[in-house]
Amino acid sequence: MSQSLSPNQKRILLGIESSCDECSASIVEYTPQSLRALSVSTFSQIDLHVPYGGVVPEIASRNHLETILGMIEKAVSDSGLKLNDIDAIAVTNRPGLVGALLVGVSAAKSLAYALMKPLVPVHHLEGHLCSLFLDHPNRNEIPYPMLAAIVSGGHTNLHVIPNGPEIWPRDLLKKTLIGSSRDDAAGEAFDKSAKILGLPYPGGKYIDELARSGNPKAYAFPRALPQKSTYDFSFSGLKTSIALEIKKQETLGQLEKEKANLCASLQEAIVDALVAKIELAIKQYGCKSLAIVGGVAANSRMRSRLNEGWKKWGLQIPALFPKPEYCTDNAAMIGAAGAFRFTQALPGVVLKPMDALALNAFSSWEVD
Ligand code: KG4
Ligand code: ZN
Question: Ligand 2 mean position to 128 CA, how many Å?
Answer without folding.
Answer: 6
